UniProtKB/TrEMBL annotation:
Enzyme Commission (EC) number: 1.1.1.203
PANTHER family in alphabetical order: BIFUNCTIONAL POLYMYXIN RESISTANCE PROTEIN ARNA, NAD(P)-BINDING DOMAIN-CONTAINING PROTEIN
A family per Pfam: Epimerase
Domain of life: Bacteria
Name of the protein in question: Uronate dehydrogenase
MF annotations from Gene Ontology: uronate dehydrogenase activity
InterPro entries recorded: Epimerase_deHydtase (IPR001509), Lipid_A_modif_metabolic_enz (IPR050177), NAD(P)-bd_dom_sf (IPR036291)
Keywords for this protein: Oxidoreductase
């Protein structure tokens, strides 16, 4: 089951946990990023994803010096695309949209034309519109599922939604597997103690995220399950942990912070940002509930 994986953006907040996790499962991972990860057993390759030629070249060359002995460069089994401007207000709005959309087009185009059979791209919770909305915007329904409306107002979320359409179009033409992960609010292990007590004290600070979170290590498992699960065609998955990021029952959160939103069943601590589909279709099993790391 060992795979050769081309991973863009592995030096970022999420990628620096996902890449070594994939390596530890026995895969050969090449990290394509403007900055090196410097992770043992992972090859770093510096590329600008907004340059189509660089992307094609990177996917067709050797990953390291040792591969020259084996002859021509080996093809990749999977491409995982995380590289992006990470949110609004890091660049101009137009530059955020340009980098994210052009970069994603280049990566998917190259992978498809070079015969890669599995592509996983990072989309975002922000496509539902609530995170960076002007003012207070309710989600279309709770629990929030992948089939609900996506009408974002900001350049980052617009770029991610555009990337989903790009992925759908390439999949329709090629017939390969392309999975889109609408990644929730990513947390690294050290951040539980730093942030979660504040969330418990003031739950309203989590409203724009629909109270979701995704442990970076659980995100790694989701990516791995996507790499190993074949035959699903084009799919979109909310990538989040099972429950909410505050210590209140789901029904209470929904009633208090989203009183006018249509609601389905919300038993116990059910996540308002639903991960039911990724559990059902990719076999994701949460390992890092926040309750393991901080008392609530």
């Amino acid at each position: 089951m060992t795979k050769r994986i081309f991973f863009t953006g592995g030096t970022g907040k999420a990628g620096r946990h996902v890449v070594p996790w994939l390596r530890d499962q026995g895969h050969h991972v090449v990290n394509a990023d403007l900055k090196p990860l410097g992770c043992d057993g992972v090859d770093d390759l510096s590329i600008d994803i907004t340059d189509s030629g660089q992307v094609f070249g990177a996917l067709t060359q050797h990953a390291n010096m040792g591969e020259f002995a084996d002859g021509p460069a080996k093809p990749y089994d999977a491409v995982v695309h995380f590289a992006a401007v990470a949110r609004v207000l890091l660049t101009s709005d137009a530059e955020c949209f340009r980098v994210n959309t052009v970069g994603t087009y280049n990566v998917i185009e190259a992978a498809v034309k070079l015969g890669v059979k599995k592509i996983i791209i990072a989309s975002s919770e922000t496509v539902y519109g609530t995170c960076f909305a002007h003012g207070d915007l309710d989600p279309p329904g709770l629990p929030l599922t992948e089939d609900m409306a996506t009408v974002p107002e900001d350049s980052y979320a617009m770029s991610k939604l555009c990337n989903e359409v790009t992925a759908r179009s390439f999949q329709a033409r090629s017939g390969i597997d392309i999975y889109v992960l609408r990644i929730g609010n990513v947390f690294e292990p050290h951040e539980y103690a730093e942030h979660f007590p504040d969330f418990f004290a003031d739950p309203a600070t989590r409203k724009r995220n629909i109270f979701n979170y995704i442990d970076a290590r659980d995100l790694a498992q989701i990516v791995h399950r996507g790499v190993l699960t074949d035959g699903l065609g084009f799919q979109i998955f909310n990538a989040a942990n099972d429950t909410n990021s505050v210590n209140r029952p789901a029904e209470e959160l929904a009633r208090t912070y989203f009183p006018n939103v249509p609601k389905g069943p919300l038993p116990g601590n059910t996540g308002l940002y639903s991960n039911e589909k990724v559990r059902r279709m990719l076999g994701f099993v949460e390992q890092h509930d926040w309750r393991r790391y901080v008392e609530g």
